[in-house]
Write a structure and sequence with these properties.
The protein contains 22 helices and no strands. The chain is mainly alpha-helical.
């Protein structure tokens, strides 16, 4: 059987040339995958920025808006697990493009329901249609995280990139917050200029289609253009040993890792459940912050103030990434520190959020964005890449999508369940109860990582010289 490395070894292996070619394409892989996830967050954030208009003008109830969040998170969770596996099994480029095209179509269908006033014609029809569209929207939105991370892992696999993994992925994960900020600014412009609010949904629909066509031209794996990476070289060395022993060698490429195999990687399960609590905190703020602020400020001011939360999340990922790189990959410890500080700020918010003015809210939300964004960014990127590089799967680059999908998917399942509590809590006990609820969630997630934090702070003597970077 032919091997994916046959043509490479036939003409000789020039390590310097392969490294040069690898490095030259990294910026383009970074740019296209960054833009793809930017579009995903641009799309989903635009919906949350017009929640007040969907309730006041389109006639959707607060219960339906809450159910939309839950439906989205449920299908997004399942979609992450499926998409990660699909990206490891089939062409990552195709999976990413389908996600972008599907997201654009769902947003367009939402506009159709608003243009023809489905809710006004029939409340049952309007509710069923919007929930059905958002059900599909969650699946399509799920492709960007696990599959985009896998493509990044494929290209940023040289030794220099691995040493700077926290910084690289910290910068890369700014995509989601750039998308969030752009959505808030787009909606603020649309409303301030006097345009119909549905333009805030139509614009991202159009841009998703455009980026989908660009993504189709992306090369997802260096081996597809004849570049030998460390993973391929390791597999070649293993095959050479098998051949020397007289064993049959089949190098048609590594088989994608199974879900069970991914869960057997140390700390994958713990990170998946811990991330669920952190993601719930993030998504309550993500989905409900404009709504909460809209009760105290006009829609334009509310969206601009809420954007400061996303602004803070960008440097958060970079800070956690750089600091954890400097401390030898001790990412769990840095994440734990950030989460403990977040609990303090949520406590302050639970007592004072209803009384704070715009300047104080801007400062608080900016800091909270840093504290939430750092751990969320790094767990689904650099930590996932660390986990997928565990010695048990070394030489198999078809594991990162599955690992990232499991972490993101389990996190989204937890978040979708937790989001059900937000509406009843704020309706019956006020917004302070919501912030106290988030304090408990953040504390639970941190406790799930306690064993890893302990191992990083007090490493075993034989691991002291070379700490496991997970």
């Amino acid at each position: 059987m032919g091997s994916e490395t046959d043509p490479l070894t036939a003409r000789g292996y020039d390590a310097a040339d392969h490294l040069r070619r690898l490095k030259s394409y990294q910026w383009w892989a970074f740019f296209v995958t960054f833009g793809g996830y930017f579009m995903a967050h641009f799309s989903r954030k635009c919906y949350s920025t017009v929640k007040q208009q969907l309730q006041d003008d389109a006639g959707y109830s607060a219960l339906i808006l809450s159910e939309m969040d839950t439906v989205f998170m449920g299908t997004y969770a399942i979609g992450n697990i499926i998409s990660g596996k699909l990206g490891d099994t089939f062409s990552p480029t195709t999976v990413l493009a389908i996600g972008l095209f599907g997201s654009g179509m769902c947003l367009f269908l939402m506009n159709v329901s608003l243009w023809f006033d489905f809710e006004g014609f029939s409340e049952t029809l309007g509710n069923f249609f919007i929930l059905g569209v958002y059900f599909l929207f969650g699946f399509f939105q799920s492709t960007g995280g696990p599959v985009g991370t896998a493509v990044m892992g494929n290209w940023f696999c040289d030794q220099e990139s691995v040493k700077r993994r926290g910084l690289i992925f910290g910068l890369w994960t700014c995509h989601q917050y750039c998308g969030d900020i752009t959505a808030a600014l787009c909606t603020a412009y649309v409303l301030n200029a006097g345009y119909q609010y549905w333009w805030a949904l139509l614009i991202p629909a159009i841009t998703n289609f455009g980026w989908g066509f660009l993504t189709m031209r992306l090369v997802a794996d260096p081996v597809d253009v004849g570049i030998i990476t460390d993973d391929v070289r390791i597999r070649m060395e293993r095959n050479a040993l098998k051949a020397a022993k007289g064993e049959d060698v089949d190098d048609s490429g590594p088989a994608p890792i199974t879900y069970a195999g991914a869960l057997r990687i140390p700390m994958v399960a713990q990170y998946a459940f811990a991330f669920g609590f952190f993601k719930l905190t993030n998504y309550v703020l993500f989905f409900w912050l404009p709504y909460f602020l809209g009760k105290h400020f006009d829609p334009v001011q509310a969206n601009l103030i809420a954007a400061l939360y996303s602004v803070g999340m960008m440097p958060g990922g970079i800070i956690v990434g750089v600091v954890s790189d400097l401390f030898g990959g001790r990412r769990a410890t840095v994440i734990g520190v950030f989460m403990c500080l977040l609990i303090v700020f949520l406590g302050i918010f639970s007592q004072k959020s209803e009384d704070l003015g715009a300047p104080a809210l801007l400062a608080m939300l900016g800091i909270m964005g840093i504290l939430v964004g750092g751990p969320n960014n790094i767990i689904t990127s650099a930590v996932a890449a660390d986990l997928a590089s565990h010695p048990s799967v070394k030489g198999n680059n078809k594991s990162l999508g599955t690992v990232t999908g499991l972490i993101n998917g389990c996190g989204a399942i937890t978040a979708s369940i937790g989001l059900l509590a937000v509406g009843p809590l704020q309706a019956n006990f006020g917004w302070s109860s919501v912030w106290i609820f988030l304090m408990g969630c953040t504390g639970a997630g941190t406790l799930l990582m306690a064993s890893k934090i302990y191992d990083e702070l007090f490493p075993k003597p034989e691991l002291d010289a070379e700490l496991d970077p997970v």
